[in-house]
Specification:
8-stranded mixed beta sheet; 8 strands
Length: 285
C-alpha cells in the first residue's frame, strides 16, 4: 500500500481542488490519501463526492499551534468535524487569518513591495488565506523566485520583516481537543529548521506524555540526519512515525506520494481513531 497522510487543497493553500486532489492521488498510484487543510474541514464533501474507486480518503486537518513562541503544526486525523470544542477552536484560528494577512500586506507595502490585498485575496480564492498566498503574490511580483524563498527572515518567516503573528492553539490543548473529538495527533515536520525555530525535543517528550500519537519523520524538509534523529526520538518516546508529501499542488515542488507512511502505522492510526473512519472510494464523479 502507498499511503500519503499530509495533503492540501484549495480549501486552504493548495492549488488542486479537493476533487482534483483525490483524482490526482489515484493517478499517482496512491491507495490512501489524507486531506489535511489548514484549520478547516471545508474540502471534505467535495473530496468524498469525487473519490475514485480504489482510493481511500482519510479526513483530517493541519492545526496551527504555538509553544514558547515557536510556531508548529499539528496533524489531526479522523476526528469528528462537528465536535463543538474543536470546531470552536478551529474557527478562532480561521477568523484571525484575514486580519493577519492584511497586516502582512501592509508591512510589505511599507517595505516598498507593490502587493495589494486584492491580489492576495484573488490568489487565496475561497481557501483559508495564509502566508503561502502572500508568498505566491511575492512570486507573481518577481520579488522572490519561489514560494519557499519568501519564507526567510527577510520576508515571511517567523520573526521576519513582514511576519505577523496570529491566534495559534497551544499544542497541549490541541492534543486534548483532538482526543476529545475522537481523533489522532501527529506533529508535522518537527525538524523543519529552514522554516524557522523548531520545538525542542524536551517539549516533544512532554507532548508525548500528554497523548501525542506520532511525529512526521519522512518529509521533504528533513534531511537524512534529521530523519535518523527523529526516528530515534520516536522510538524512545513510543511515538508513531509517519511519512507524507505535504502536497500543495503547483505551489510547492513536492509531488503526491513523494514520502509515504508504513501500512502498519496507518493501521494503528485507524485503530486509535473513534471520531471518524477512512472512507473507501467507490468511483466518484
Amino acid at each position: 500500500m502507498r499511503i500519503d497522510l499530509h495533503c492540501h487543497s484549495t480549501a486552504s493553500d493548495g492549488t488542486d481542488t479537493p476533487a482534483e486532489l483525490v483524482r490526482n492521488a489515484a493517478d499517482a498510484g496512491l491507495d490512501v490519501v489524507a486531506l489535511t487543510d489548514h484549520d478547516t474541514t471545508r474540502g471534505y464533501a467535495d473530496a468524498l463526492a469525487a473519490l475514485p474507486g480504489g482510493l481511500t480518503l482519510v479526513t483530517g486537518a493541519e492545526l496551527s499551534c504555538r509553544i514558547d513562541g515557536v510556531s508548529m503544526h499539528m496533524l489531526a486525523y479522523l476526528f469528528d468535524p462537528e465536535e463543538p470544542a474543536l470546531l470552536a477552536e478551529r474557527e478562532l484560528v480561521r477568523d484571525d487569518r484575514v486580519p493577519r494577512a492584511r497586516a502582512m500586506v501592509a508591512k510589505l507595502q511599507e517595505l516598498g513591495v507593490p502587493v495589494t490585498w486584492e491580489q492576495v485575496a484573488r490568489i487565496a480564492g475561497e481557501g483559508s488565506v495564509g502566508r503561502p498566498h502572500v508568498a505566491t503574490a511575492l512570486v507573481e511580483l518577481g520579488v522572490v523566485p519561489t514560494v519557499s524563498d519568501a519564507f526567510t527572515e527577510g520576508w515571511l518567516a517567523d520573526g521576519g520583516r513582514a511576519f505577523v503573528e496570529k491566534h495559534e492553539t497551544d499544542p497541549f490543548e490541541a492534543i486534548r481537543l483532538v482526543k476529545g473529538a475522537g481523533g489522532v495527533t501527529v506533529f508535522a515536520h518537527p525538524g523543519a529548521a529552514k522554516r524557522g525555530r523548531t520545538v525542542p525535543e524536551s517539549a516533544i517528550a512532554e507532548m508525548a506524555a500528554a497523548g501525542l500519537d506520532g511525529i512526521e519523520v519522512d518529509h521533504m524538509d528533513h534531511d537524512d540526519e534529521t530523519r535518523t534523529r527523529l526516528r530515534g526520538l520516536a522510538r524512545d518516546l513510543g511515538l508513531l512515525v509517519t511519512g507524507s508529501s505535504d502536497y500543495h499542488g503547483s505551489r510547492k515542488t513536492c509531488v503526491l506520494g513523494e514520502y509515504t507512511t508504513d501500512p502498519e502505522v496507518y493501521g494503528e492510526i485507524t485503530r486509535r481513531a473513534t471520531g471518524a473512519f477512512p472512507v473507501p472510494g467507490t468511483g466518484g464523479a
